[in-house]
Design goal:
Low-confidence stretches: none
Strand content: under 5%
Shape: globular
Helix content: over 70%
Radius of gyration: 19 Å
Number of domains: 2
Distance between the termini: 38 Å
């Protein structure tokens, strides 16, 4: 049974592998160019483990940004994951002590993949997906740090593989869900918030509005 769980978790995490290895390498290369050593990259990925903020943290560390500013930026950038966690409250509570690891390792990608898991053995598969994904990110960062300036090609735009990952997962979800109205409403809300708040601030308000809509819809159905 454990072998089957490990096999399922690895197969489900392959899209994350394809994304994290290359984006992690880009992060490691940027850390190397900024003058940090490989163990800096490993330590930050181990303790912080949030891709978007880790890229921003490089400039923060270079410019000596105050700790309070760094903490507030981390909170705002990753605030969307507060909404993600609502989906798995019951699943995390059934995991016992593992729930603290699951909370720490919840990312956009693991959330998206976990949403596609069948209910059978879900609570056993999710921790392994989180573990594999974290390993992929750290391995990618280390590869980037070791390769450094030896890479002969231009890595500009490599972070688009994250966007490609979400598009693939979205297409898979759209095929499985019966009610397409919810997906359409989420899409419309996202576009409106993008137009109103811009590319840097649209994520949080769109999540809030969509969550309120889903809560209202659930309340009406009770």
């Amino acid at each position: 049974m454990k072998k089957e769980i490990l096999k399922t978790a690895f197969i489900k995490s392959i899209p994350i592998l394809c994304s994290y290895i290359f984006v992690g390498m880009a992060y490691g290369l940027m850390m190397n160019e900024a003058g940090f050593y490989w163990w800096h990259t490993l330590l930050i990925s181990l303790v912080i483990y949030t891709g978007a903020f880790q890229f921003l943290l490089i400039s923060f560390l270079q410019t000596g940004t105050p700790l309070l500013t760094i903490c507030l930026s981390a909170l705002l950038i990753n605030s969307r994951q507060l909404f993600y966690s609502l989906t798995f409250i019951d699943d995390f509570n059934r995991m016992g002590k593992k729930k603290w690891y699951m909370i720490h390792t919840l990312t956009d990608e693991t959330y998206a993949v976990n949403c596609t898991l069948p209910s059978q053995n879900k609570k056993d598969i999710m921790p392994w997906i989180a573990f594999f994904s974290r390993c992929y990110w750290m391995i990618g960062g280390l590869l980037g740090s070791f390769i450094g300036n030896l890479v002969p090609w231009n890595l500009e735009g490599i972070d688009f593989c994250m966007t490609a990952l979400f598009i693939i997962i979205l297409m898979d979800q759209c095929k499985k869900i019966e009610n397409q109205k919810i997906a359409c409403i989420g899409f419309i809300v996202g576009i409106l918030c993008l137009l109103l708040f811009g590319t840097r601030q649209f994520m949080l308000p769109s999540l809030i509005l969509t969550s309120f809509f889903l809560l209202y819809r659930s309340w009406r159905e009770i």
